Amino acid sequence: MTETSVHPEATLHAVKAALGACVQQISLALGEVTVVVHPAHYLQAAKLLQGTPGCQFEQLLDLCAVDYSAYGDGAYKGPRFAVVCHLLSVSLNQRLRLKVFAPDDDLPLVESVTTIWNSANWFEREAFDLFGIIFEGHEDLRRLLTDYGFIGHPFRKDFPVSGHVEMRYDAEQRRVVYQPVSIEPREITPRIIREDNYGGPH
Predict the structure, then answer these.
(1) Which residue pairs, CB below 8 angstroms and at least 24 apart, start in 75-80?
(2) Closest C-alpha to 9, from 114, 115, 92, 112
(3) Domain locations in the chain as residue ranges
(4) DSSP track, 81-124
(5) With 60 as the cut, is the pLDDT of residue 108 above it?
């Protein structure tokens, strides 16, 4: 650890004190603090984490989404979609995981943190594209990895493996055309060969 490093326990107490009522849950594991905040206080919590002495998380390293619909083999009963930010305090040499759950499964919406960390821009676009999470306040929320005409959000657990549509080049029309998926799903059962004395003397 460098001379400016602080102990993760100190970070946990600093984050808890800074966020106050914004915190739904906070924990420390493997030297890293994870804090879950209420969706109504997500943007406020992000501002506090960036600027409050003892926190000072100047950098957003990553932002991703999680679909919990199949979590725990169906035993999970909470909100379906979460947004997870991975933050770094350069000055304190600490990392933090900031987590918020979208309150509406049918229209998952959380506030954008691009006004606090501009590195969130493409990360939020990716989460919108792949999971369908809407980031309120994002100035350019559009698909990033899939095509403009793509249907659905491919990282959702209920998205079909073969997709909804397929594209191909039509030589007669001289352009790319979209059509319903023509692949028929099939279950492949591996062939099992059983031999007596397999691997033994011949």
Answers:
(1) 79/103, 79/105, 80/105, 80/108
(2) 92
(3) 8-142
(4) EEEEEEEEETTTTEEEEEEEE-S-SSS-EEE--TTT-TTHHHHH
(5) yes
Fold of 8-142: Beta Polymerase; domain 2 (3.30.460)
Mean pLDDT for all residues in the chain: 90
Q: Helix, strand, or coil here: 6?
A: coil
* Torsion angle of the four alpha carbons 28, 30, 31, 33, in this order, in degrees rounded to the nearest 10: -30
Measured from the Cβ of residue 153, the count of other Cβ atoms closer than 10 Å reads 20
Alpha-carbon distances, residue 10 vs 45, 83, 94, 141 (angstroms): 18, 25, 10, 37
Q: What is the pLDDT of residues 118-154, one digit of tens each?
A: 999 999 999 999 999 999 999 999 999 998 778 899 9
The token duo for 7 is 């102990």
Listed in sequence order, the residues at least 6 apart from 191 whose beta carbon sits closer than 8 Å to its beta carbon are none
Confidence grade of residue 112 (pLDDT, cut at 50, 70, 90): very high
